[in-house]
């Protein structure tokens, strides 16, 4: 049954908050524009971009802004235009250095039009960042590369500190939410990443409010854990425009707290769960916490 909600329906109180202001936000926005770069914060209309920019944090979107897929939840434009800019990795590294970032998040549009899905470009960007900033930490949020293990290995061999691939939603909803993706393919990618290099922490993200049931959420959490994922983000889906899928339900904050507890009981080491949580939200904190846990476990 189609939802009667639309983008004009008033959001609940827990989804309304004042936007941070200040020179830091404008400085980051201006630098990104001047560098001819894209961020997923802006392209995907992330509700946290004002907060993150104000803290000199940004998730760089490479090979964009046009995506070769047309996911029904995402506001990133469809239709890549030509090959990636070979100078983009350098510009990302320069922007990260200018922002004095200690933790750099790099994601991309999906580029099914490229032979390796853009894996080589991820590797070049990681290398450029670490060459410019040897002490920086790099998290990559990658597409599924159509299940190509060689493409995944290319990214792994570039040694990111965290490898993230979002499952996004429950298996039953894939045909409607992510018609060009496959639930099992995403799980298999995470398993393969662990097999290639078990030292790299694996991370994934899940959206709520698209019509999934509690049983389906539990199953997705368990499936991700079984795929060796140990960092999980859970957030509220928000409809970017009237052309996108409607919100089936606004999930209360207490319910997000419950899913955090269940995820930790399942075995996840770090979980960020809340209405405003997105893949890169407080990413550095999650990484530091999991590293601290791993050190403690090793000492024991």
Describe this structure in words.
This protein has a single domain (21-299), classed as Aldolase class I (TIM Barrel, Alpha-Beta Barrel), CATH 3.20.20. Helix content is 39%, strand content 12%. It contains 11 helices and 8 strands. It has helices spanning 23-34, 40-43, 49-54, 88-98, 119-132, 149-157, 174-177, 183-196, 214-226, 253-266, 283-299; strands at residues 38-39, 59-62, 103-108, 137-141, 162-164, 202-208, 231-236, 270-273. Helix 10 links the parallel strand 7 (231-236) and strand 8. The longest helix is centred in the last third of the chain and has 17 residues, at 283-299. The chain is globular, with a radius of gyration of 18 Å. The chain starts with 22 loop residues before the first helix and ends with a helix. Mean pLDDT is 86; it is low at 1-8 and 40-44.
State the gist of this model.
The protein is α/β, with parallel strands linked by helices. It has helices spanning 23-34, 40-43, 49-54, 88-98, 119-132, 149-157, 174-177, 183-196, 214-226, 253-266, 283-299; strands at 38-39, 59-62, 103-108, 137-141, 162-164, 202-208, 231-236, 270-273. Residues 1-8 and 40-44 have low confidence and may be disordered.
């Amino acid at each position: 049954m189609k939802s009667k909600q639309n983008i004009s329906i008033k959001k609940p109180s827990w989804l309304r908050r004042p936007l941070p202001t200040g020179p830091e936000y404008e400085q980051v926005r201006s630098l990104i524009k001047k560098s001819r770069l894209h961020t997923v914060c802006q392209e995907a209309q992330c509700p946290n971009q004002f907060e993150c920019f104000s803290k000199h944090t940004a998730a760089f979107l490479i090979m964009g802004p046009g995506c070769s897929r047309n996911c029904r939840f995402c506001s990133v434009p469809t239709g890549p235009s030509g090959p990636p800019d070979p100078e983009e990795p350098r510009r990302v590294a320069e922007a990260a250095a200018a922002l004095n970032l200690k933790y750099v998040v790099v994601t991309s549009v999906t580029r099914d039009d490229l032979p390796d899905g853009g894996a080589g470009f991820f590797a070049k960007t990681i290398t450029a960042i670490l060459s410019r900033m040897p002490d920086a930490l790099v998290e990559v949020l990658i597409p599924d590369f159509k299940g190509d293990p060689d493409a995944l290995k290319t990214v792994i061999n570039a040694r990111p500190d965290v490898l993230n691939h979002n499952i996004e939603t429950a298996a039953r909803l894939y045909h409607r939410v992510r018609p060009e993706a496959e639930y099992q393919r995403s799980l298999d990618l995470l398993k393969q990443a662990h097999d290639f290099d078990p030292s790299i922490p694996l991370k994934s993200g899940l959206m709520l409010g698209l019509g999934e049931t509690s049983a389906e959420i539990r199953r997705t959490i368990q499936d991700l854990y079984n795929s060796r994922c140990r960092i999980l983000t859970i957030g509220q889906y928000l409809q970017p425009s009237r052309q996108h899928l409607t919100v089936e339900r606004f999930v209360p904050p207490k319910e997000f707290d419950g899913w955090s507890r269940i995820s930790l009981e399942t075995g996840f080491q770090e979980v960020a769960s809340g209405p405003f949580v997105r893949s890169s939200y407080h990413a550095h904190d999650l990484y530091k916490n999991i590293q601290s846990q791993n050190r403690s476990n090793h000492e024991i």
